[in-house]
Amino acid sequence: MRIQTYTDYSLRVLIHAAVKAPQLVTVQEVAQAFRISKNHLMKVINGLSRAGFLATVRGRNGGFTLARPAASIKVGDVVRFTEQDTTLVECFDARRNRCVITPACRLKTVLYDAQEAFYGVLDRHSVADLFGAPETVLRHLATAK
Question: Cα separation of 129 and 145, whole Å?
């Protein structure tokens, strides 16, 4: 299973905001630290804000921060939000399924169980679990510029 780039960037943004909390973080700061396009980050930050993971402040001294403590943001919730299409195989979608062996096949059940196990692990971890000492992450972010 592979997560989308959007999900990867979302988790990086949340980690960055968590280690800088309660300070506001700018899009430019994250773009430079991770060498990611500002345009991509604007989409990510907008989505995370609409989903309630980030709080944004507009204006000259604006930026964003976590909308709630990092320990209360479950990684599984973030990944479910960012991975909109979790259709691993055709038979997961009854409207588009054209596989003739679906009634006799157990692959769907096996893959569904695997997907649930994947999310089960992610649900046991929060954004706060994704980094050790904030100072260490901040040091790496500073050297990335």
Answer: 25
Q: Which domains does the chain have, with CATH numbers?
A: 5-85+126-143 (1.10.10.10)
Per-residue pLDDT of the chain (145 residues; tens, 9 = 90+): 688 999 999 999 999 999 999 999 999 999 999 999 999 999 999 999 999 999 999 988 899 999 999 999 999 999 999 998 777 888 888 888 898 988 899 998 999 899 999 999 999 999 999 998 888 898 888 876 6
CA 2 to chain centroid, in Å, comes to 13
